[in-house]
Structure formats: C-alpha cells, structure tokens
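// run 5 | inverse folding | seed 20
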C-alpha cells in the first residue's frame, strides 16, 4: 500500500490482470495477499495535442480536478465478433449460429474527495453470443461465468444481461481501511485462488483492515445468493426472491521479512434463512475475531468453515514463489472427510527482457472440497464457485506468458487439467460442489480423480494494440483451443475473434 498522506490531487485505482505485475516488482514491504490492492493512479497527467487526440489515445474522457477533489469518467465500449467450429445451441432448435460475439456498452466513474475517501462505480449493458462450451454452462447455471443472471435467451441472437459494480473506500489514517462495495475480492498471490477468487459474480461486502507495522488483520462480511433454480423461474420465485447466505472472511498477514509473507486464512458460510424461509441468523456470525464464532445457526444448521495458509517469498526482485493450503476438513486420510486444496506457483516479471512476464502454477483439490449438505452453506454464489472454477476433484497446471512492447501486448495461456466427473446425474464423485455431500458415491476409499477420469486441454492466445491505456481501449484478436474428453464424450472447441475492446474487468473462460 502506498503512503497516501498529503496526496490531495491523486486518484486511487485497483490492480487487475493488466497491471498486477507492477505489484511484484516493488522492493518495499507490501501486503499482496488480499486484492484489490490500492495504488496511486497517474490519471492527473496531461498530454499535448487536440482534444480528440488526447481523449482517444491518452486521457480519460472526463477529468474534473479541484483542490482535494477529483473525478474521472469514461464511456466504455467492448465489442468483438468471432467464428467457432461448434454451433451455438438454441432453445427452439432453430436459428443456430457459429459466430460468437459481444456488444457491451457502459461507463466507469471514479475519483477521490480529499486524502481519505475514494469511490468507483461501473455499469455495462451486454448482449453476447458465447462459444459453445461457455454457452452450455450459462444455460445450465442460469448465470454467465463471473457475471450475473441473464435476462433472457435470444437464442442465436444472444444473451442479454447487465453488469454493475460500486466501491467506497475510507482510510482515516495509515492504520485502518474501510471498503464498502458491490464487487469481487481475491485472496492469494497466484492466478487462481483456492481460498477466495474473483471468478464468481459481484456481491455486497464490507471489508475492514487494521495495519500495524508488519501485521495486517482483515475482516470481510459478505452476502451471497445461495441458489438460482435451473430452468425458468416461477412467478412465486420471482416474488419471494432467492435464498441468501452470509460469509465471514478473515485474513491475518505477517510480513516476516520484506521478502517473505505468511497469511492465516479463515472463512465461514452461514445460512440467512431456514427451509421455511424464516430468518436463521445467529449474532455470533458477526464476530470480528478469527476462529471465535458459533458453529450452528439458531435452527441447528452447521456452518461451513474453512481455514488455510498462504505464503509468498520473493526470491529476487520481480520473482516470487507462492503457495496455498486450505482445508474444509482434515478427517481420516483416504475417506470423504479428508477435504483440502493445495497450490504452488512462481511468477516473474521482466524475464530476460523488459515487459516479458511469466507464471507457472499447480492447483489441486480433493473430492467433495467446498461442498456441504446444503446450498445455504456451500462455498458458492449465484451458481458459481467462490474458489476454483473446476470445483473439486481435479489437478491443474497453468502456464501464462504476456509481453508488452510500447503499445503492443501479447498473451499466451496453456492449461492442462485432469478431473473426475460424474458418470450420471445420480452419481456424486466429488467434483460438483453444488451436490449435497450426503449423496456421495464414495465413503472410505476416496481417491483423487475418482469417477470418470477426464482430460482438459485449454490454449489461448491474444494479441492487442493499445489505443488508450487509461481505459485499456485496444484492437484485439484472439484464438482459443479447448479439448475436453473422457470415455463418455469428446468435446472440442475452436474459437477465433477480433474486436475493439476496453475496460479492466477480469473475466475468465478458461475452464
């Protein structure tokens, strides 16, 4: 975290997938585990030239700067069109398409009031036709991965949905931070997180952090949607709304050395209502102390508690080794109660030449990890996992390389995964975290990749020319190759696109 004291004419922004490498170049002590991390933006810079040239290629569209008060704003457009080898299915079996596309229009406004208060809001209206493998997930889960529920299915004409986020940050001094928002959070130093990722959609939250010397204690209260029924909603469901649940997330960071940080993690999921939709809230769910809370709701529903460790070590400037270990239950080895996940990775910036960044990462989660006996306590939000997109019962290796040169940007991702799938909807071998854990198909001889052994190979290449780095407006082309096969099926996707893209949203389709 930068020292913001006395900085009255600077705005605040958040690290994202385009700027994350800058964070790991620093030599000073920085708490990197909980993201987004705040940093001073360079939005106050001015450039020479005509108004049109400055706004198109160098500046924000709106710049309002007064002593102690700044507002920046942009109109965002994110569009592309592509071609796929697979036909996008339709509800009526007609008007199918092989041309995925996206048309997003929106705005982003952010700024600061004085040296203690910062704000940010975004809104997007979207119509999209997704590659077949993404489209199938959308129709099954009723929500777009990393994004909200869709309003309607226009078949080959696309899926219609909105996307919004808001954030208010108050820092009364260098020791405390209050972050109230409707958005996402991420815990870890890797590309994936087995603790809390930004793969699921936005949710309301309040995060409070206290920093003292080399220690930082963070607490977040959040609310999630328990379940969205598959298929079309009934009038009654729309009237009474969706069931919700509460989350508490704790993180204690200790910067043992400027190169070495260890973080203790805990998260707890509580039901908001019982089966009769009566409030089922226990005051202990609002405990601000890690590990000091009740274990059951007033109706007797057990909460879902997970704990773990995150560690990072800076080998040399720009190169960091990181790891995660998280446990849902550490029961007898080999049984269904032994549920945990592990991560090990390394990331390096400016490898051999400035602008070349590399990441290699391994992730695994035991069968039945993140699942419980109720959707009101499992580790999910809006039919989307809050941790890893593959759920559980998998092993995964990821390699990512990106390179920036002047206004050019290139990114290559390779993903290899093995997972154990369910042979039928009646089986439960531990991958699907939404299935009731009481329906498990294995008891005492639970093995990794049990069920139908499946192989997933994913490759993605992007090339872009950056027109305006303030809005990340760019001309971008990409190619995605995906093979998913087992003894029951072979599913191949090939997808190419080109478009004029913008925004800094982290949206993922590598699953």
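// decoded
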């Amino acid at each position: 975290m930068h020292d913001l004291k006395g900085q009255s004419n600077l705005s605040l922004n958040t690290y994202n997938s385009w700027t994350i490498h800058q964070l790991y170049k620093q030599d000073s002590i920085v708490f990197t585990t909980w993201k987004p991390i705040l940093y001073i933006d360079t939005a106050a810079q001015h450039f020479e030239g005509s108004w049109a040239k400055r706004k198109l290629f160098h500046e924000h569209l709106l710049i309002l700067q007064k002593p102690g008060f700044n507002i920046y704003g942009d109109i965002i457009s994110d569009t592309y069109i592509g071609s796929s080898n697979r036909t996008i299915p339709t509800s009526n079996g007609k008007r199918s398409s092989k041309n995925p596309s996206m048309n997003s229009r929106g705005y982003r406004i952010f700024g600061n009031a004085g040296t203690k208060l910062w704000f940010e809001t975004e809104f997007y209206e979207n119509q999209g036709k997704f590659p077949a493998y993404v489209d199938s997930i959308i129709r099954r889960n009723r929500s777009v991965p990393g994004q909200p529920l869709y309003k309607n299915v226009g078949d080959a004409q696309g899926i219609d949905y909105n996307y919004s986020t808001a954030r208010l940050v108050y820092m009364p001094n260098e020791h405390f931070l209050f972050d109230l928002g409707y958005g996402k959070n991420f815990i870890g130093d890797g590309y994936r997180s087995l603790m809390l990722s930004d793969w699921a959609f936005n949710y309301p939250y309040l995060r409070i952090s206290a920093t003292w010397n080399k220690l930082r204690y963070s607490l977040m209260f959040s609310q999630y949607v328990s379940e969205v029924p598959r298929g079309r909603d009934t009038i009654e469901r729309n009237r009474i709304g969706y069931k919700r649940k509460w989350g508490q997330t704790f993180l204690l960071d200790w910067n043992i050395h400027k190169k070495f940080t260890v973080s203790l993690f805990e998260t707890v999921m509580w039901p908001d209502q019982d089966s009769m939709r009566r409030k089922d809230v226990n005051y202990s769910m609002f405990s601000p102390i890690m590990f000091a809370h009740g274990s059951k709701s007033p109706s007797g529903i057990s909460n879902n508690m997970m704990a773990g460790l995150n560690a990072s070590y800076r080998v040399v400037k720009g190169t960091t080794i990181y790891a995660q270990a998280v446990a849902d239950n550490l029961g007898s080895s080999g049984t269904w109660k032994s549920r945990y996940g592990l991560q090990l990775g390394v990331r390096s910036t400016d490898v051999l030449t400035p602008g070349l960044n590399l990441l290699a990462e391994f992730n695994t989660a035991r069968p039945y990890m993140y699942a419980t006996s109720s959707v009101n306590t499992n580790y999910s939000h809006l039919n989307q996992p809050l941790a890893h997109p593959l759920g559980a019962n998998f092993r995964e290796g990821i390699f990512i390389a990106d390179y920036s040169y002047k206004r050019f940007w290139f990114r290559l991702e390779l993903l290899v995964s093995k997972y154990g799938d369910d042979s039928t909807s009646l089986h439960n071998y531990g991958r699907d975290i939404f299935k009731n854990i009481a329906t498990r198909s294995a008891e005492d001889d639970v093995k990794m990749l049990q069920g139908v052994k499946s192989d997933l190979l994913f490759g993605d290449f992007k090339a872009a020319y950056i027109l305006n780095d303030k809005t990340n407006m760019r001309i971008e082309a990409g190619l995605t190759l995906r093979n998913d096969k087992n003894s029951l099926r072979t599913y191949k996707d090939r997808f190419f696109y080109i478009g004029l893209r913008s925004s800094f949203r982290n949206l993922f389709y590598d699953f």
